[in-house]
């Protein structure tokens, strides 16, 4: 009976995974970078981490005239970058803030994260987000508000 349950659960898992794998036709490239910075507070310095996860996605589309051919040609589709930036600015093991950016891959050359005396500045396509480590606040120009998605997270793993 125990083996039957295990077999059923495994079969259900594999079926769900295979069906999902066949549904999305995307190319995904992922990269993760962790940077450490410091902020001065009086006579001491406080370290904090910025964890940046890059995810580059593009749809995989094939030419309709090659539908039954063995070697099909791909259609160029716009590639998008999603950056998830998590900030750990205290002594626990959880990240405290999350910033998500999505933009065209051509604009990724403009991405910069530069430390300041109070935190850091993220710049993409001329748009800026200033993060203040001590206040745990961010500042964005009103016009750039839709570009940066910011979430306050209570617990992250």
Search tags:
five-stranded antiparallel sheet; flat; four-stranded antiparallel sheet; signal; GLPGLI family protein; 157 residues; mainly beta
Task: Tell me briefly what this model is.
Keywords: Signal. With 157 residues, the chain is mainly β.
Radius of gyration: 22 Å
* Overall average pLDDT: 79
How would a textbook summarize the main sheet? 5 strands, antiparallel
Low-confidence stretches: none
Give a count of the beta strands, DSSP E runs of length 2 or more. 11
Q: Which term fits the overall shape?
A: flat
Strand content: over 45%
Structural class: mainly beta
Biggest sheet strand line-up: 1-2-5-6-11
Helix content: 10-25%
H-E string: HEEEEEEEEEEE
Task: Write up this protein.
Residues 1-21 form the signal peptide. This is GLPGLI family protein. Keywords: Signal. By secondary structure, the protein is mainly beta. It has one domain (25-152). The protein is 14% helix and 50% strand. It has 1 helix and 11 strands; from the N terminus they run H-E-E-E-E-E-E-E-E-E-E-E. It has one helix at residues 2-23, and strands at residues 26-41, 44-59, 61-62, 74-75, 80-88, 97-104, 112-115, 119-124, 127-132, 137-140, 148-152. The strands form 3 sheets. A 5-stranded antiparallel β-sheet has the order 1-2-5-6-11, with no helix packed on it. A hairpin with an 8-residue loop joins strand 5 (80-88) and strand 6 (97-104). The radius of gyration is 22 Å and the shape is flat. 9% of the residues are buried.
């Amino acid at each position: 009976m125990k083996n039957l349950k295990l077999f059923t659960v495994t079969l259900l898992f594999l079926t769900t995974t295979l069906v999902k794998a066949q549904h999305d036709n995307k190319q995904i490239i992922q990269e993760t970078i962790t940077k450490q910075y410091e902020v001065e507070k009086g006579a001491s310095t406080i370290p904090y981490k910025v964890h940046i996860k890059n995810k580059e996605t593009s749809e995989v589309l094939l030419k309709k005239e090659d539908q039954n051919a063995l070697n099909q040609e791909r259609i160029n589709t716009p590639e998008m970058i999603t950056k998830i930036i998590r900030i750990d600015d205290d002594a626990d093991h959880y990240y405290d803030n999350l910033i998500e950016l999505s933009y065209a891959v051509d604009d990724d050359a403009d991405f910069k994260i530069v430390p300041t005396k109070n935190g850091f500045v993220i710049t993409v396509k001329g748009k800026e987000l200033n993060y203040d480590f001590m206040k745990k606040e961010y500042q964005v120009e009103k016009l750039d508000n839709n570009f940066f998605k910011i979430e306050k997270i209570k617990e992250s793993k």
